[in-house]
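pasting for ref
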Amino acid sequence: SLEMNDTLEFKIVKGDDIAKYYNSSNYLNNNGTLGGSCMSDERGKLKLYTENDDKVGLLILHNKETDKICGRALIWKLKKSPCDAKYFMDRVYTNNDSDVIKFKKFAIENKFLYKQPNNLNNKFNNMFGMIMKYIALINKI
């Protein structure tokens, strides 16, 4: 079911809050792709995200009561788009694989482009990720 309980909600955060929710102490638990993320706690590498709040945000699925997250995905503002979308949702990291569909549903409802499939297991996705980072650097975001 796509229904969420009353304690979970989606929220887009920016600036220093991006670093906050990359910190594993703010994860609900260490399960899944979220718990295994290589960027967890890499505060020094997050400047590209935290210092460009007009161009990048972080979509979090968090528990309103504990403020712990069970999922996150970077949201990039697009300079040019092949369609009506103004934002691109990058790879989703979750404690539970089943929550990935909630992020995709959120992206669709908000007219975001999103990464499909949601992994880095093939050459296309690795290349795509590198291209996105290269574009970000060229655009000085």
